[in-house]
Write a structure and sequence with these properties.
This protein has 11 helices and 15 strands. The protein is an alpha/beta fold. The strands form 4 sheets. The chain has an 8-stranded parallel beta barrel with strand order 1-2-3-5-8-9-12-15, surrounded by 6 helices. The chain is globular and about 60 Å long.
Length: about 325
Amino acid sequence: MRPFRFLAAVGELHDLPGLAAFARRAESIGYDALMAPDHLVAQHAPIPFLTAAAAATEKLRVGTFVFNNNLRHPAVLAQELATLDRLSGGRLEVGLGAGWNKPEHDAIGIPFEPVGTRVSQLTEAIRVFKGCFGDGKFSFDGEHYTITDYDAQPKPVQRPHPPIFIGGGGKRLLTLAAKEAQIIGLAPRLGKDGKGVPTLDAPSITFAATEEKIGWIREAAGDRFLGIELNSYPTGGPMVLTNDAKGEARRRADELRERTGVELTVEEIMESPHVFIGSIKELTRKFIALRERLGISSFLLNDMETFAPIVEELADR
């Protein structure tokens, strides 16, 4: 089994001293990486943010969870990423996604294409990233990007490229991840409410649905599968430290029913790889069980301090 890796989520704005302290604290607890999101909302831009975090630490890896491919040309972003990998001494992880939040696109006039088009763009973008990170000149003639005899500089420290992290909940995106990524984030699928706003597809957070997704990955990855790290994160609601896990699970089931109209049982909530509620001991046992039963060894935690005892016990085990 792969050793546990815990990723710390950045959930608030920091000034430079605050960010440095936050990053050093994550490193001292045993978190493996600090992950920044990529949205056009009240947050710092990920590249300068992660550069500052890397400068304040010695071993902590830095990455995105995840870049919205639609917001930047991949060759331009590749130069920034290679620069960050060099400045950090090879501590970068590249999280990539097809974009999902339509209002962000609408606000700046970037078309929000159908999901098939966005996945196609991401597929080509990965080819561009790998070409930029590779040795020498490369050319690429795709439907969305055209590269001609381009020798991108600088090259990253990590060869052939920094680890690529792709998350998804649908078969097409997970198949792409199985073929191209070193780390795969197991995400729920998204539906739409009556107003077209993305909403959680509640059944896709269950253990059974996650097992099915891993089956898709295994089939598409073939011999690559044993080298892939599987990640999960708390998309079924915030992590909650409690001695009444079943009571909290009932409340969570009620919230999901009100939001989505779908009824999940308390048992389905409790064993979901995307729901983390319980005591420190219960959650520690759950992480161990998810690794044993599904092979998930990487977890993004959204409260660095509250769950520090789990990280201190399990990190790198």
